[in-house]
Amino acid sequence: MSGEILLLAALGALGWYWYAGLQVREQAVAVGRRACRDAGVQFLDDSVALGRIRLARNGDGQLQFRRDYRFEFSDTGDNRRPGVVRMLGDHAEWVSLDRDWQPGALAGVTRLRD
């Protein structure tokens, strides 16, 4: 009986992690799209891909998942350049557009305000 409860709790935790991850991914897509719009480039494929996940502490000292999502953008319409959105929990920490590409004040890493 206790094994079944433990299995049910584990499945519930896995379901919560999956659902929370989907919400964070949607937020990362919105952040990437906004960063590309602000930089005057095209956000490609309207998607992001999870590149890395680890635990980190937020400003209040609480442990949260830190996820790096990769995406691609184009500045000319016929090329692909890499970008990264780093999320801590459900908040964006920063967005990185291809470091070789320097569009004026927006170069390398763009800090986002909450």
UniProtKB/TrEMBL annotation:
Pfam families: DUF3301 (PF11743). It comes from the Bacteria. This is DUF3301 domain-containing protein. The lineage of its organism: Bacteria, Pseudomonadati, Pseudomonadota, Betaproteobacteria, Nitrosomonadales.
